[in-house]
Each structure stands twice: as structure tokens, then as C-alpha cells.
Design goal:
259 residues, alpha+beta, 5-stranded antiparallel beta sheet, 5 strands
């Protein structure tokens, strides 16, 4: 279940726009490994940033240091933990991207995360960088792949190159963590992750529906009914409301009257 201390920290992250991306990623790392020393880890990342030579593009420096998202082994929770990424050099785009942002800013570059759908990107100065292999890419290259996704699913993205806030980065990292936990049938841990996500994105119907599904998996029908009812009673996506109503009918009222 969710830890109150972490809930408070995610609430602070949601409310305090001054917190940087590294703070968000370190918080996710602590959720996965509460024993990690976040201050010591930040110091090690500062040392990495300080080692980037003047005149070397930060993304080239990361390549030289052996960081990459191209590896043979499958994605695991370790790829979302900066402590592991720093040790192995292997991460997913968002964890590698957070490290690149920190290195770039220490070298005096303007840098920001890019909330690109399905694949986190970074801007360093005028360059758009794909952190999976630390190479510059163009918006057209990125949009080509996104166009294929649109064609398959009909999804519209208002601004695929929007800047990612620290809260957005935490939300995306938690999505990756949640996928790993659900894939491993770790329903209780996944439920805690959804709880943290709802702090960052209050009232989100998709997350509430996921929470209801996880309560079902955990054999807690009353809690599942409550979450499904929240989805059914709020506005938004008609298909999601219909799905929630169907689940409520399937589960029965359990003797509870929903207002």
C-alpha cells in the first residue's frame, strides 16, 4: 500500500513547480528502494555532471560514458532506478533523459524534458535529443513514428513536443513502474503506484478505473465498487463511464448505496 511519507512528497512535487526533474526521479527511486540514500545518489550524479568536459556536447559525453538504452536484457524495475542506471549505464529513455538534463544544465545549457507520447525526449540548447542513444533527432523524424501511431489508434496529441514538468516526469516514470508491477502480478504494489499517480493527477478517471481493477485483483470488491462508482459518477469519457457502470452491475451493490 501507499506510504504516507511518499504521499506527502508526491503532493509536494505536485504543488511545488520549483522542484527539478532529478528530484522527481529520485523520489521514484525511493519508492522502489526505500533504503537508497537519495542525497548520496544526487552527489554522485553531480560528480557525473561535473566530469563533462567543456566543449563536449552533453549527449556525446553520456555516450562516451557508456550510457545507452540499447541493451539485450528485458526492461526491469532497475531501469527506472537512477541508482541502477548510474551503475550499469542502462536505462529507459526517461531515466537516461533525466541524467542528461542534469549534466546539460551543469554545463550551462538550457535544457528541458519533452513530453513526447510513448518516448521521452530532451531539448538541450537548440538540439532535440533522443536519450535512448543520445543522438540528435528532428521533429519530423519523431512525428513520422507518431503519425503511424495515430493511424493505428486515431489518437490526437495537441502538442507532442510540450515541455515535461517535474510532476509529469514522475507520472511517466510511475507508469513504467506500474507496467512492470502489473506484468509481475504485484497488484498491491501497483495499487500504491496508482495512488501516487492520483496525487499528481487528481480525479483522473483512467487512473481511478485502474485502481478499481487492482482492488478487484486483490479480492476487495467493496473498494473496487467505490472506485468504479467514482468513475461512473463523473463526467468525461462516455466509454469509460459505461465500462465502470458495467463493472458495478457485475459486482452488485454489495449492500452499499452510492450517492
Amino acid at each position: 500500500m501507499a506510504e504516507p511519507a511518499f504521499e506527502a512528497q508526491f503532493r509536494q512535487l505536485a504543488e511545488d513547480a520549483s522542484q527539478d526533474e532529478l528530484s522527481a526521479a529520485l523520489l521514484v527511486n525511493r519508492v522502489l528502494d526505500p533504503a537508497v540514500d537519495a542525497d548520496a545518489l544526487r552527489h554522485r550524479i553531480d560528480e557525473l555532471a561535473g566530469a563533462c568536459p567543456s566543449g563536449v556536447p552533453p549527449w556525446a559525453f553520456m555516450q562516451q560514458r557508456g550510457f545507452s538504452g540499447n541493451w539485450a536484457e528485458p526492461v526491469t524495475l532497475a531501469h527506472s532506478c537512477l541508482a541502477d542506471v548510474l551503475q550499469t549505464g542502462h536505462g529507459i529513455p526517461i531515466s537516461l533523459g533525466v541524467l542528461l538534463l542534469h549534466v546539460a544544465r551543469r554545463r550551462g545549457f538550457d535544457a528541458a524534458g519533452v513530453n513526447f507520447p510513448g518516448h521521452f525526449l530532451t531539448r538541450v540548447g537548440d538540439a532535440l535529443i533522443d536519450p535512448v542513444d543520445f543522438r540528435p533527432v528532428t521533429e519530423d523524424e519523431c512525428l513520422h513514428g507518431l503519425g503511424e501511431a495515430r493511424g493505428l489508434g486515431g489518437t490526437a496529441f495537441p502538442d507532442p513536443f510540450a515541455t515535461a514538468t517535474s510532476a509529469m516526469i514522475a507520472l511517466r516514470m510511475l507508469n513504467n513502474v506500474k507496467a512492470q508491477l502489473v506484468g509481475g502480478s504485484q497488484w498491491d504494489r501497483a495499487l500504491a503506484i496508482v495512488g501516487y499517480q492520483l496525487i499528481l493527477l487528481p480525479g483522473n478517471a483512467d487512473l481511478q478505473f485502474e485502481r478499481a481493477q487492482l482492488w478487484e485483483r486483490l479480492g476487495a470488491p467493496d473498494a473496487a465498487r467505490q472506485s468504479y462508482a467514482q468513475v461512473a459518477q463523473q463526467g468525461g469519457d462516455a466509454k469509460l463511464r459505461s465500462a465502470a457502470e458495467a463493472k458495478l452491475a457485475e459486482l452488485g451493490d454489495g449492500g452499499t448505496v452510492w450517492n
